[in-house]
Amino acid sequence: MTRILLIKLLFVSSVLSAQPLTSEQMIQRGDEVSAKLLQTLGGELKNQIQNGGLIKALHFCSQNALILTDKIAKESGVKIKRISLLNRNPLNHPSAEEKKVIEAWQLASNQGELLPSHTIYNGIYYKPIIINNEVCLKCHGTLQSESPIAKSIKNSYPEDKAVGYKMGDLRGAIQVSF
Ligand code: HEC
Q1: Cα 87 to ligand 1 centre (Å)
Q2: Structure confidence by residue, pLDDT tens digits, 16-51
Q3: Which residues of 105-143 are buried (b: 16+ CB within 10 A; e: fewer)?
């Protein structure tokens, strides 16, 4: 009798510990992790532009954005991706599922609606990334095709789609999975 009770208790506790996060917990963790990522990448970008100029910052992003993203993911015990319908880095191309989320936001934004601060879809957290700083336009705005920065971008990313943005545009998403 006691043995059965013990087994039952063990079973219940293992089910409890394996319980998936609630939506509230996902939102809280997702907000924390994405804020940390934006702060880190934004801080590095500013630093690199100030200390080395735009081209140096471009190369820094190429070489380190994914490494820094993975580092924060590991420290936080989650997986993080940055994705965009118009991606620069081929590794940031969204899957069909991920596209659905960004396309729904894009539609809302085209209709003049405010974007949500996050969306939970199939148990995964997504946060819209907006072009919210003039500095973004230096590498994602409408670039003169003969300018050094446009040439460097084309050199590193022959398939680049991430230009032509304006302030306030939806740029993509941070995705956090648990
Ligand atoms: C110095 C040039 C530069 C500036 C300024 C810049 N970016 Fe980028 N961005 C890049 C490069 C290079 C990549 C591709 C490398 C990577 O991050 O994976 C990229 C990639 C991205 C991505 C990932 C999706 C993709 O297209 O690959 C997002 C999202 C993004 N940038 C948003 C922004 C935002 C928002 C700002 C302004 C705060 C900004 N960027 C400013 C160079 C820049």
Answers
A1: 9
A2: 556 889 999 999 999 999 999 999 999 999 999 999
A3: bbeebeeeeeeeebbbeeebbbbbbbbeeebbbbbbbeb
